[in-house]
Amino acid sequence: MPTSSEDSKYTLEYVFGIFCLLLLLPTAILAFGEYRNIIDYFEYGGDFNDIISWILYTATIFSILFISGLKFTGNIKSNTVRVGSGIFIILLSTVNLISRISDFDEERKNLGFDDSWLEFLYWSSTHETLELVFLGIVIGFFILKR
Question: pLDDT tens for residues 114-132?
Answer without folding.
Answer: 777 788 788 888 888 889 9
